[in-house]
Known about the structure:
By secondary structure, this protein is of the alpha+beta class. It has 13 helices and 18 strands.
Amino acid sequence: MTSKTCSLCGGQLEPRQVEKVLRGGEHSTNLRVDAEVCLWCGESVYTTESVARFERIRRKLSRGDLAEFTRADDFAQAPAGLYAYAPEVPSSSPSELRHPADNGVSAWVVRGGRQGKWEDAFFEHGLASIDFGLRHSVSDFGSQAELRDYLIDVSYRSYSSVRQAAAAASQLWRFANVVRIGDVALMPRKKSAVVAAGRISGEYVFQPQLEESQFGLHTRDVEWLSNDIPRSSFDPDIINSMRNPKTLFQPTGEDASRRIVSTLKSHLAESRNGGQPVPARNSDGVPGELNRQTDRYKDAVARIRRLGAATVEVLVAEVLRASGYVVSSPQRYGEDGAIDFLAGKGDLGFDQPRLRVMVKARTRALEDGEYNKFRQDVESDRQGATHGLLVSLAGFVETVHKENARSFYRIRLWGPDELARRLLETYDALPPDIRAEIPLENRKVLVEG
């Protein structure tokens, strides 16, 4: 792949492995494929070889030529590759969540409006909606590019840049034309650390008669199944991907949709079981690794939140050392007593990346002004640091995550969830005194990064 910027919005492209759903006739399949993904609008760019492969697969699906595919019934035993799914059969229970292996279900995160203002209305009326200031149906446009050009030409006052208009067009187009009935909808609640989940149950509808203060005008019916799933129930990489500031997007990570549906099924089964966990089991009836992995992660997050400021500072430094960094002596930074130190790769710490690290261990989420000052300090650093790592034990306000998307290749943010994930990855290499401070069971259970 030679393209480095998105042709739709001009955003930066990053190599990733993505899930691609293909349909032909009465069959569908999904596969994992390398692509370059725009960090701003989410557009995926494929090689000409991949595009040609997609077309060959679609033709085979349309013809019913399924010799090289594995049928859904054999999905659990099949190796990674191509899978063919029979046409969707209406569920006998409208509240049943189907596994992605059954019919190619995808998971989508949809926001409940600015500051969560639409969340309660979503639950009350059984829908999800987005807006972006578009007062026409997405169906009026023949392509995403046509919609993008309209937003740029007609609604330019609503967007601060062409890139923002392209990102809005991408999300509107996906909401109307890519999201399917039966897909899973996730909505991270704005004012609490829980996630609502449901099943897309209706086609896209433009409803200009709706009260704009209560809904967005572009809607999909949703059968909301739960509104109180703890975020910590999901795998760490999925939790991190939910921090994406977009209104509509797919969580990233290998087999993300499959793992999300497994988590939802476990939560719903636990709810029906009076709050008692229902162990996940493999084909031999033995409890699987998922629950043990998730429990260990929850334990790590809880213990980190209880640590004193001095211990958090030492923990961050030791996690970096265990990851191959040479770490300088810490220094106090700023009026609130935050810790600042340097870290570099290589035997002497001279190799890239060279980090400026700031750790804030307090109970208040880090806000825009503090983030902007840290970013400016990194950009003007005179000690040789090229990148920044900002750690906040209380996390970050949502606008910080949105702003940091522009500094993807320069600054990383670690809240308690990400710090827990890094702790688990390096736990066995940490000094004994740190492991004694944060004792964790099942040390050898690995967490996917």
